[in-house]
Each structure stands twice: as C-alpha cells, then as structure tokens.
Amino acid sequence: MDQPRIPPGQTLTTGLPVLDLGLRPDLRPENWSLALFGLVEQELRLDWDHFQSLPREARCSDFHCVTHWSRLDAQWEGVAAKTLIALARPLADARFVTLHGADGYTTNLPLEALLDPDVLLADGLDGGPLADAHGGPVRLVVPRRYAWKSAKWLVGLEFHAEDRPGYWEVRGYHNDADPWKEERYAE
C-alpha cells in the first residue's frame, strides 16, 4: 500500500503561502553572504559567486507548514547542505546547528538532520529564482520537518555541541517538528 503524502492534520495547497515575522531584509545576491562558524575546522564566509560555483542540485519535495497546509512537488534548486557542511568540516563535538536568518530569525536542528540528502540551501523554486517573499536569495529547505525549520533569508549556520532552541521553539513549538508525528507544539 502506498504511503500518503499529506501528513495528518494538513490541507493541500497548490501555492506557497507567505509567512514570516513581518521583517523583510533587503537582501540581493550582490549583498548576500553565508557564514559557517562555531565548532568547525574551517570557518567560511561565502559570497554569491562562491555559492553559485558549488555543485548544484535540483530536488522535488513536499513542503509542510505547521499552520496546516502542505505543498506537494515543490521544485527546489540550490546547493546540498551536506556539500557546504563538508567544506566547513564540523568538529567531532558539533552535534547541533543554529540557522540564522537576516531578519534575526533562528531555528535549530541536529547536525544529522542537515546531512539528509534532500536538504538544500535553495536559491531557486519552480524553475525561477527564489523570490524575496519566500526567503530569497537563499533559504534552507528541510522537507522532513515543518517549514519553520526551513529558515528564510539564510545568512548563517552556527555549529555547537548543545542544542539551542530558536525563535519558535522558545515560544512553545516542538523542537523536532516532524509533520508525520504532528509535532507542532511542545507538550
């Protein structure tokens, strides 16, 4: 029997609703950069040209939001998170990552979650550049988690030993955010 593609409690949408903190940073490829720092052998700051020179990947994935909508078959393009992580070479005690958005937003993930083969730092969606409203020029895409873990306007990956809950997690959202388990809010 085929497994359903829409998690419990979700409703299908064909668009990609726009949700954010209400702060849209003025980011364009020419003023964007990405820092990888913390418990790594090689701290990095990549500008747009360096990011674009890395191996590119395209992924078709389903995208689920804690606000009960799911978008199937989103066509993302970008750089695999594992490619960037390999460049920074996390130290052995780096087990967690804080994702930093240019709007001050943060979220957290175990390092192992970022190493999943479907996790992208996306700069493209559905055949075009990633729009500002959807987190452009670059956002994280973590298909196996609710969308709040897919930080928009991504400008930093901070590696550390302990877990550090982010913006929504300290406000009562579940730390793991698995849509199949309906991990929307903390107990």
From TrEMBL:
Signal peptide: none annotated. Residues 25-168 form the Oxidoreductase molybdopterin-binding domain. CDD domains: arch_bact_SO_family_Moco. It comes from the Bacteria. It holds the Pfam family Oxidored_molyb. InterPro entries: OxRdtase_Mopterin-bd_dom. PANTHER family: OXIDOREDUCTASE MOLYBDOPTERIN-BINDING DOMAIN-CONTAINING PROTEIN (PTHR43032:SF4), PROTEIN-METHIONINE-SULFOXIDE REDUCTASE (PTHR43032). This is Sulfite oxidase-like oxidoreductase.
